[in-house]
Design goal:
alpha+beta, about 15% helix
Length: about 260
C-alpha cells in the first residue's frame, strides 16, 4: 500500500486492531513459557517419616502406630508360678511389663500368710467396647480360678499356679486338714465322706460340690450350700471322679 497524507491521517480499521491484539497475545504466551522452564524449582521441605521399610529394590516410608504392642509376651517368669506382690497382673496382655504379665488359664491359688486366708480381685476391662466388671472373693487356703485374657488379676496373700503344673510343686491341698477347693480323684479320692464344721469363727460354713472344673470356675453358676450356716451338724456327701469340692469353715472326715 502506498502511504500518502490521506491514508496517514485515517484511523486504524477494526481488522488492524484485531491483528495487533492477536500478535500481543502470542508474544505474551511465548514469554511465559520461557520463564516457566528457566525458573528454579522449589524444594519440598516437609519432613519424611522416621520409620522406613526396606525392600529388595527400594526403601519406602511406612506408618507404625505408637501404640503397637510387642508381638511376643514376656517369657522369663517361672512357668506357672506367680507370687503375690499386692500388685496388678495383666492377664494375657502382650503389652504388659514383664513383671506384671500372667498368661490366661486355670490357676490354683494358695494362701501364703500365717492365717492361710487369701483374697482376690478380678477386674474385667475391654477398652474397645468400654466395659468393666469386678469380681472379688475371699477363700480359705486354696481356690481354683479361671483368669481370662483382658482381665486384671489382683492377688492378696496368695500365690497363683497354673493348674496343669500345680502338682509338680509338691504343695499339699488336703481337705482332711483345712478348707479350700479340691479336685476329686487328685486331691481326694472319690467316695462317701462326712463334712464336719470346724470351730473357726472366721468362716461361713460352706460345702459345695461342682460337677466338673468348668462349673467350678463359672462365677455365674449358683450351687446349693449343703451345710446350714447356722448349725454345726455334720453331713454325709458322695464325691465322684472329676467333681470339685469347695469347703469353708469345714473339713472332710472319712467314714469308718
Amino acid at each position: 500500500m502506498i502511504m500518502n497524507d490521506e491514508n496517514y491521517n485515517r484511523p486504524p480499521s477494526d481488522v488492524h486492531i484485531m491483528m495487533i491484539g492477536i500478535a500481543m497475545a502470542v508474544i505474551t504466551g511465548i514469554i511465559s513459557i520461557a520463564f516457566m522452564f528457566t525458573e528454579p524449582r522449589k524444594e519440598n521441605n516437609k519432613p519424611e517419616s522416621s520409620v522406613t521399610e526396606v525392600t529388595e529394590n527400594s526403601t519406602k516410608s511406612t506408618y507404625v502406630p505408637y501404640t503397637s504392642p510387642p508381638t511376643e509376651p514376656p517369657t522369663t517368669l517361672p512357668a506357672g508360678f506367680y507370687p503375690d506382690n499386692h500388685d496388678v497382673y495383666s492377664v494375657g496382655a502382650d503389652y504388659a511389663p514383664e513383671e506384671y504379665y500372667i498368661p490366661e488359664g486355670i490357676y490354683m491359688l494358695i494362701a501364703n500368710n500365717d492365717e492361710k486366708e487369701g483374697y482376690v480381685h478380678l477386674l474385667g476391662t475391654d477398652h474397645d467396647v468400654n466395659w468393666q466388671e469386678l469380681n472379688e472373693f475371699f477363700f480359705e487356703y486354696s481356690c481354683i480360678v479361671k483368669l481370662e485374657k483382658g482381665w486384671d488379676y489382683i492377688p492378696t496373700y496368695c500365690d497363683a499356679y497354673l493348674l496343669d503344673t500345680f502338682d509338680s510343686y509338691g504343695i499339699e491341698n488336703n481337705p482332711f486338714k483345712h478348707g479350700g477347693m479340691f479336685r476329686v480323684g487328685i486331691d481326694v479320692p472319690a467316695g462317701t465322706y462326712r463334712v464336719v464344721v470346724t470351730d473357726e469363727q472366721n468362716y461361713r460354713h460352706w460345702a459345695v460340690i461342682y460337677n466338673d472344673i468348668d462349673e467350678a470356675v463359672d462365677n455365674d453358676t449358683d450351687k446349693e450350700n449343703l451345710l446350714n450356716n447356722e448349725t454345726t451338724e455334720s453331713i454325709e456327701i458322695k464325691l465322684k471322679e472329676g467333681n470339685i469340692l469347695m469347703l469353708s469353715g469345714s473339713i472332710l472326715e472319712e467314714i469308718s
